[in-house]
Amino acid sequence: MKNFWCKLVLIFILSYSFGSCKGQESYFLTQGEVFRTSFHIKYKYTRELGTEIRARLDSFDLSLNPFNKQSIIYKVNNNIDVEVDDWFISVFNKAQEVARQSNGSYDITCAPLINLWGFGYDKMDKVSPQVIDSLKQFIGYEKVRLEGRKVIKKDPRLQINASSIAKGYSCDVIAELLDFYGIQDYMIEIGGEIRAKGKNATNVCWKIEIPKPIDNPDGRVTERQTVVPLCNRSIATSGNYRNFYIKDGKKYVHTIDPVTGYPSRQNLLSATVFASDCMTADAYATAFMVLGLEKACVLADSIPGLDYYFIYADDNGQFQVRRSSKAEAINY
Q1: pTM of the full predicted structure?
Q2: Tens of pLDDT along 176-228?
Q3: 3-state secondary structure string across the chain
């Protein structure tokens, strides 16, 4: 009998301890800068997780930040012998998948072209058809592959730029961290790409703004196009209204067409993509901007689980919207 009561008391103590560990949950905000952009992460938990989040982002930086000379992707680009990690493999495989689906309109090997036009991590060279043709000799997603944890290039000059997919994937990486802690309500925004789960502090789906694609290079003034609810999904927007420059009266945008070698000149002004994971949404948003409205709609409609909200200019230069059937059902 004595042992029975001892066990009962022990069970009571353990139950109380585990119950009290949970504590009172509140919404926290962790924010800062990473990958040369900002991040804002809101989540409902018993304590602030800034240290853990920062550590995970710093580790991710060492994998896929081409500006970081200690990163894996930097070493790959500079032909330094290195084994890639799981994060690099996930990004590479998804990028190759989107490249195949878009017939090369999306291609993470077009880094030299991005640099050439002044949007990369190297100094811009003089642009000419001859220079573009010379660069295209070692650009192409089919010219690189993975063998185990080694990147095999057909040409050592080939370089990889994962900026059009890595920010989205970093949202997924932080989501995995928050899921590990059992967090049910969060919103992760890194460089404008967003992944959300559960509800916000007012107990409704997270409210995400889609801006109007009005030229705004400094990002200081934005005008709202619409607001969409986001529960248990990801959203990414690509557009040419922020990252561009004017030279000799001509506008040059950061979306480079890997096939032509020139900045994309499509009537599609902004591509917002919804998907279950942010890496997929991020990559396809870029691919759609290169493809243009009609081809983008055809491809997007063929991909299960993908929804879109496209803003384009009609023949009169007026903003128009085209969205997928599921997006049409959302109460904006």
Answers
A1: 0.86
A2: 999 999 999 999 999 999 999 999 999 999 999 998 887 665 555 578 889 99
A3: CHHHHHHHHHHHHHHHHHHHHHCCCEEEEEEEEECCEEEEEEEEECCCCHHHHHHHHHHHHHHHCCCCCCCHHHHHHCCCCCCCCHHHHHHHHHHHHHHHHCCCCCCCCEHHHHHHCCCCCCCCCCCCHHHHHHHHCCCCHHHEEEECCEEEECCCCCECCCHHHHHHHHHHHHHHHHHHCCCCCEEEEECCEEEEECCCCCCCCEEEEEECCCCCCCCCCCCEEEEEEECCEEEEEEECCCCEEEECCEEEECCECCCCCCECCCCEEEEEEEECCHHHHHHHHHHHHHHCHHHHHHHHHCCCCCEEEEEEECCCCCEEEEECHHHHCCCC
